[in-house]
Design a protein that fits this description.
Helix content of chain A: 25-40%
Number of helices of chain A: 16
Oligomer: homodimer
CATH class of the largest domain in chain A: Alpha Beta
Shape of chain A: globular
CATH architecture of the largest domain in chain A: 3-Layer(aba) Sandwich
Number of strands of chain A: 19
Number of domains of chain A: 3
Distance between the termini of chain A: 33 Å
Largest sheet of chain A: 5 strands, antiparallel
Structural class of chain A: alpha+beta
Chain lengths: 543, 543
């Protein structure tokens, strides 16, 4: 389509791929820093990727709605989990869609669904393709597959500045919708890590977690109404600030991961851009003391925009700390109200728990309140940079033989200490066992933890694993670690996912977590709306 | 059971019923104040109420689980809408349950469901019986009915002070659960108008709206997990502060109005009792200017606990004002943080919109910040008193021939002005037409409006109608007014209910509002969980 193209594997655009020379330098740096990782492996180029022949022919009746182009089939074949990046690097695309469809409007979505149903094909709705749970990969072989890419539906259709809401098409990526909202001096401020590529529809389908560490941050809370195309008609809810009319139809679609309908557009709650901002890093010697500070802050009614706790290892890995101290990244922002007072109160709480605000950090600068400026604390800045760069860096990790993957959950405060200890122990043990690496010291695999979101009743811990990869056996290696992690999470009472969704990857643990009568209800709902099972088979429920 | 008994009709306990003399005095006062209403009619006494014979025999196998006692059948026969109070007063109980069951635990709920299914009977879950939408009335004649009263399940089973959560049985009324939480210096602070009688399970089943005018106030947001008994097993979700694992199972039960399962208990989010409180009334000459102030406050991030706008007529009716000014009741509260600053900022916004804070009101006292004390502003106090007394007063209204009923909705800000005007006009016109009363002046029916909750994207307007009743034809009279109101609400883009639920009364308009594919999904879910259609037939979906 003449635009900047996504890399056919891994993260980012084609023009962002590092050169051979850069990769070699990175490999040396990674090994020096982590104590593992080796020579960079080169990715199989796009033209050498072998795909199975398409099992569907591009229908001639619908113009350029469908394509079977090689690049398109490759780039829609996998998500962005570690296992996907590994396989992409190696040119392994076992389940490519047979066709890719790019609808321009709702009627074309209907065309795709009807045509697919008539052909006995499945349809996988595709937003940014950033699923890390196999949500967009057709892991079934009983029928052909159309990947339904919503990227042409990328407009902000209407802005209601009085109610602070906007009607936005499902295929708009984070930057696309923010650039259109900016014209109205408004913002959705929903910044998942995948922000650059993922889409509003994808966020709604997967219950994405957003920018804010507290208060309304899930897309669940930002949705005012939704329109979705189902095989049995259009699911369109009313724009309402609130309603008590039966179970919420929006909440039934939010998290439905493409099995009930294709989200076409949504009215979402937006807000004025923040004018007041304050940001500060707080160091702790003791992780549980830091967690205690976070608990108290989350229950204080202060509602920080940022309240992300990084354990010492995570702080070191992301360059936000030296590895001795745990780092709490605190931030407040508001379009209307000064934020000095809540920051002061939050810092008081942090100090009560042994926290040391970085009054002079690596920069020698004091944390200060900034109006319309970026935060100045370097640890905080480093963390933000690392947060957005992480998915790019991972491609390099993978090429250099470094296992790099994450998992995330949520748990109530009363169980957190034991939960955290048991999850870390289970994963560290399994990583050491599988990687044959030392548990501690130089070259030891890293299992670190941060909080991505916090609630009055508990945190959402997010774990990162960095370890020497078993080259050629990466997928199986990770699968074993993942199983140990997921079992510890489920055993400890957590959720199998706080904001990564279920997809195909989390199915078996999700089945344990989900109330069985709800599974019956969901299966029945699916059957009623999609009797032919066209929509994303194998996600959430049995295909 | 030897306890204080509920009146067999209307609101409150038997010992709260006014004497004949009191009623006569009240009638005179009402007529003087409203310009309509006449001699009080006496209620048909309990022992003269005629019920159809029970179509079920109390089974002997289950001890005192079931009863067919006359009083019990009467008191479970109706809800608390105007039409219910009218019929109760006249001794009209056309659809009494055949039996009433009082389970003591989950296994007894299962017994009731199984026994009823085997007998071909329906089961109506019953909390406080305060439904104003026909939610507990068996308006069907094709099968016998068991009213399943949860009142014996009224305990706080567990308190997790660290996560600020409590595990509470579904049959606990507001006062019962608050008295148990108080021992832990905690509170749910969920105060619907029916607080004294309604129950946690009822709140969850009907998506009740709570104490707070902004932020987390719906029971939807306070539920951490739920256990419900369905005909196909126990629906038990995990205690989680947040999750992204598929559509929320809790949100599917919240608002299910007893058609999917019987809610047995729930972990809910509680909080420390507020130590800082501030409350103030602000007067406005112009209702839309006041609404503008509310809009700006709701979008400011100040999160007032109270932000209830009463139009001048509503303020006069409730004794909170003289009828010339519109009154905004503003309140802030916090367990931890002083509330002077947010109150000051909110009052600034109110002033910018022409609001006049009652620095010297009827009491001559200034609004002041109170710590652990009740608010001092008399308009505010009067409003609070009237809020809680309203349902009691309505029995007297009904006895004296005064039509007294409410309806409520929610709408986005951009549509509010036109919506409000058209709803008020439609209802005033219909009331005048039916009651043959003047539209304005002394003796005119009253159609007034207040906001019960406000969101950044819109208010939840609540309308009250007071008019001369057509004695003997009250139900039909109200039905016509209600239809005009509901049509104006639906036509104007509102929701048929913001927190009163759908029940049987709102069905026909709910069908317009609800996305059709969601109706298909809900019906299928119901069929999967309750194939015999035992649970609350005729609520939300076709029986």
């Amino acid at each position: 389509m003449g635009e900047r193209r996504l890399k056919h594997w891994g993260w980012g655009y084609e023009d962002q791929a590092p050169s051979r020379e850069q990769l070699r330098e990175a490999a040396a740096g990674i090994n020096e820093r982590l104590g593992f990782g080796g020579e960079p492996e080169e990715a199989v180029p796009l033209d050498q990727v072998k795909l199975r022949e398409p099992r569907l022919k591009v229908p001639s009746a619908f113009g350029d709605l469908f394509t079977d182009e090689h690049y398109e089939r490759v780039v829609h074949a996998l998500g962005k989990a570690y296992r996907d990046v590994v396989r992409g690097l190696r040119g392994e695309f076992p389940n490519p869609p047979d066709l890719v469809a790019y609808p321009r409007d709702e009627s074309e979505i209907e065309v795709v669904l009807e045509w697919a149903e008539a052909e006995g094909a499945a349809v996988i709705p595709f937003g940014g393709g950033t699923s890390v749970v196999g949500g967009v990969e057709a892991r079934f072989s009983d029928r052909p597959v159309v990947s339904l890419d919503l990227k042409r539906l990328d407009r902000v259709l209407e802005v209601d500045a009085e109610s602070l809401a906007a009607r936005i098409q499902a295929g708009a990526t984070g930057p696309r919708l923010e650039e259109q909202l900016k014209e109205h001096e408004l913002t959705l401020r929903h910044f998942p890590q995948s922000f650059e590529y993922s889409t509003l529809g994808g966020w709604i389908a997967t219950r994405a977690g957003g920018h804010f560490a507290t208060l309304y941050t899930h897309i669940d809370d930002l949705v005012e109404s939704v329109r979705a195309i189902t095989p049995r008609g259009t699911w369109a809810s009313r724009r309402l600030p609130g309603s008590g009319a039966g179970p919420s139809p929006d909440r039934a679609l939010v998290g439905s991961e493409g099995i009930l309908g294709v989200i076409a557009e949504s009215w979402v709650r937006v807000r004025p851009r923040p004018r007041f901002k304050s940001s500060c890093g707080v160091e702790f010697d003791d992780f549980l003391a830091a967690a205690g500070a976070v608990r108290e802050i989350s229950q204080s009614g202060l509602h920080p925009a940022n309240c992300r706790l990084l354990d010492a290892l995570e702080a070191r890995t992301t360059g936000a700390g030296t590895g001795e101290k745990h780092l709490l990244v605190l931030g407040f922002e508001s379009p209307d109200l000064p934020v000095e007072d809540p920051m002061r109160l939050a810092l008081e709480i942090a100090r009560d728990h042994g926290g040391d605000p970085r009054t002079s950090g690596p920069t020698g600068r004091k944390p200060k309140n900034t109006i319309g400026l970026r935060p100045v604390d370097r640890g905080v800045e480093a963390w933000r940079g690392a947060f957005l760069l992480a998915p790019y860096l991972r491609d390099t990790f993978v090429a250099c033989g470094v296992l790099s993957e994450t998992f995330e959950t949520a748990i109530t405060w009363d169980r957190f200490e034991e939960f955290h200890a048991s999850v870390i122990e289970a994963v560290r043990g399994k990583v050491a066992e599988i990687c044959g690496a030392p548990v501690e010291g130089a070259g030891a695999p890293r299992v670190s933890c941060r909080f991505t979101h916090v609630y009055p009743d508990g945190p959402a811990p997010y774990f990162t694993v960095l370890a020497p990869a078993l080259r050629g056996g990466e997928v199986e290696q990770w699968d074993e670690i993942k199983a140990a992690a997921a079992e510890a999470v489920i055993e400890g009472g957590g959720t199998i996912t706080h904001h990564h969704a279920v997809g195909r990857e989390h199915r078996r643990w999700y089945h344990t977590e989900r109330p069985e009568p709800f599974a019956l209800a969901l299966r029945a709902a699916k059957k009623a709306l999609d009797p032919a099972g066209v929509l994303n088979p194998g996600v959430l429920i049995d295909p």
